[in-house]
């Protein structure tokens, strides 16, 4: 069954936050290894010098890193996603989705394409969305609210689990 939906600015910001959170917690990179490195340096310097100030300095480093990470996740990422959404006019148009045996077909007023199961890199979901990745940072956003219009969300997640991998 074909279902038409529209992705809102809030949807896009929430999806970007989910992507950033899952990416941060599951993929080792320079960005998410920096806090660990900083904590290890503070601890190492404290142990090397025999300083009793190590514990307060370590606590301060952990608090500062936590604040920076929270601000990034809850302020910077959604703000940047909203900016991108406003510039990306095609994202603001209605999107049609149709589940087929070969994959999921997406279309809008400008184009149409089939995302074959074999081309899906990974997928993830929360209570609001299913994100279907065809590249490490490129995903199709499917709101779960389209189930009210007759789209079979459980079948989509089942097919993704069968053909791609369990959710990551």
Task: Produce a short descriptive summary.
The chain is α+β, with helices and mostly antiparallel strands.
Polypeptide structure, described:
Strand 6 and strand 7 (138-143) form a beta hairpin. The protein is elongated. Helix 1 (9-26) packs antiparallel against helix 3. It has helices spanning 9-26, 30-49, 54-87, 153-163; strands at 2-5, 95-99, 103-107, 112-116, 122-125, 129-135, 138-143. Strands 1-2-3-4 form a four-stranded antiparallel β-sheet, with no helix packed on it. It has a three-stranded antiparallel β-sheet with strand order 5-6-7, covered by helices on one side. The protein is α+β, with helices and mostly antiparallel strands.
What is the count of structural domains? 2
Count of individual beta strands: 7
Rg from alpha-carbon coordinates:
21 Å
CATH class of the largest domain: Mainly Beta
Order of helices and strands: EHHHEEEEEEH
Strand content: 15-25%
Instruction: Determine the number of helices (DSSP H or I, runs of at least 4 residues).
Output: 4
At the third CATH level, what is the topology name of the largest domain?
PH-domain like
| Biggest sheet, spatial arrangement of strands | 1-2-3-4
- Just name the CATH architecture of the largest domain: Roll
Structural class: alpha+beta
How far is it from the N-terminal to the C-terminal residue, by CA? 27 Å
Overall pLDDT confidence: 84
